[in-house]
Amino acid sequence: MNRVTVTDLKRMRDRGERIAMVTAYDYPTAKLADEAGIPMILVGDTLGMVVLGYDSTVPVTIEEMIHHGKAVVRGAQNAHIVVDMPFGSYQTGWQDALRNAIRIMQETGCSSVKLEGGQRSAETVMRLVEAGVPVMGHIGLTPQSVNTLGGFKVQGRTPREAVHLIQDAKALESAGAYAIVLETVPTALAHMITQRVNVPTIGIGAGPFCSGQVQVWHDMLGLYDALTPKHARRFADVGAVIRQALGDYRRLVESGEFPTRKESFYMDDRALELIRRMTASDAEDMSEAERVMAELAEDISRPNAGGPA
Ligand code: KIV
Question: What is the pLDDT of residue 292?
Answer without folding.
Answer: 65
